[in-house]
Amino acid sequence: MSAKVFVDTNILVYARDTSEANKQTQSLQWLTVLWQQRSGAISYQTLNEYYVIVTQRLKPGLSRSEAQHDIRNLLLWNPLPVDRVVIENAWLIQERQGFSWWDSLILSAAQIQDCDYLLSEDMQHRQTIGRLQIINPFLSDISILA
Hints:
Layout: E1 5-7, H1 9-14, H2 21-37, E2 40-41, H3 44-57, H4 64-74, H5 84-97, H6 101-112, E3 117-119, E4 128-129, E5 132-135
Parallel strand pairs: 1-2, 1-3, 3-5
Antiparallel strand pairs: 4-5
C-alpha cells in the first residue's frame, strides 16, 4: 500500500511557477506520483491558499479559470474541511510544538487524514509530529513513496 501524503500549498504553487524551473519540475514529479498512486491529501485551507497565491501573487500568475480548473481536479483528493476537530488538534500542536497557527492547521489536517508524510518546504525536513513525518521534496528522493 502506498504512503498517504499531505501536500502543503507551496508544493502545489511551485508546480505552476515557471520562474522556479527546478522546483517546478520536482513538484510536478512528486504530484504525478501522488496522482498515480492515489495517495495525495489536502485540506480546504490548502485550496484557498493556492487560489489566492496563483491568481494574485504568482508572476506570471494564473487566470481565475485556470486556478479553478486546478482546484476542481484537486477536489478529487477529497479535501478535509477545517472544522472543530481540526482546530482543536491544531491548538494542541501549536501549544506543544510551537508551530505557527497556519502550519499547525496543516499539520492537524494531515494527522486527521492519517497521512504518513507532509510535503512542505516551509517546515523542518524529516521532523516527526506523532507518526507524521515532514519531508522537503527538494531535499528528498521521491523513492520514499515506493
